[in-house]
Amino acid sequence: ESPLLHAAAVREPGKPGGYLEAATVFWDYYQFDHALRLLDEGRRKLNQPALYAYETGAIYENQRDCHRAVEEYMRGALQQPHMQAWQRLMALSRRPAQRARIEEVTAQAVSGPGVSLPALNLRVALLESQDRRDDLEKLLTSTLEDSGSFEMLEHVEQIAARHGFDALGR
Predict the structure, then answer these.
(1) Is residue 120 within 8 Å of residue 132, measured between CB atoms?
(2) Mean pLDDT calculated for residue range 34-57
(3) Which of 104, 33, 97, 111 is nearest to 74 (CA)?
């Protein structure tokens, strides 16, 4: 690993761009382990565990480690909805080889009490993209039953209304 590239990563402490810039150089030359190490260092030093989730996921995809790639994309999708990691998860969900894994992680994110809005929105988007109305209705019903949050209840009612699930409304 080049000390100059590592120095570039830390030349502006507190700013994520340096780590990403230096990691990209390693990534461009297929030195994935060095790139991952720099991105991880940036996450730790900046205390942002979901930082670089899209880039880390892409590196894992390049290494053909789709299991870890999906984990990273999921981390990023929950932190920054509708951004690159979210979009990549949605694209991968259309691939037969990744469909089951993405189904598993998105279903797990909305299971049980305390579901977050980003997790619910991601799962809803996945079910909508696959035209799975029955599963969507079941998800909304269980979320209504398990949630004590007014914000969540209101959000679920809006989704239900958009899909014509009148029985789920007030």
Answers:
(1) no
(2) 93
(3) 104
Question: Vertex 7, ends 63 and 77: CA angle to 5°?
Answer: 45
- Kindly give, in sequence order, each residue whose CB lies less than 8 Å from that of residue 35, ignoring residues fewer than 6 positions away: 23, 24, 26, 27, 59
Evaluate if residue 8 carries a pLDDT over 60: no
- Give the SS3 label for residue 124: helix
CB 147 within 8 A of CB 156: yes
Q: How many Å separate Cα 151 from the centre of its chain?
A: 22
Q: How far is Cα 139 from Cα 69, in angstroms, rounded to an integer?
A: 25
pLDDT score recorded for residue 14: 66
- Residue 26 CB-density burial (10 A; 0-12 exposed, 13-18 middle, 19+ buried): buried
DSSP code string of 14-35 = T-THHHHHHHHHHHHTT-HHHH
Question: Which phi-psi region, left, alpha or beta, contains residue 48 (left: φ > 0; alpha: ψ -120 to 50)?
Answer: beta
Per-residue pLDDT, 169: 57
Is 32 exposed, middle or buried (CB count within 10 Å of its CB: 0-12, 13-18, 19+)? middle
Q: Is the pLDDT of residue 2 over 90?
A: no
pTM of the model: 0.86
Collapsed DSSP state (helix, strand, coil) of residue 132: coil
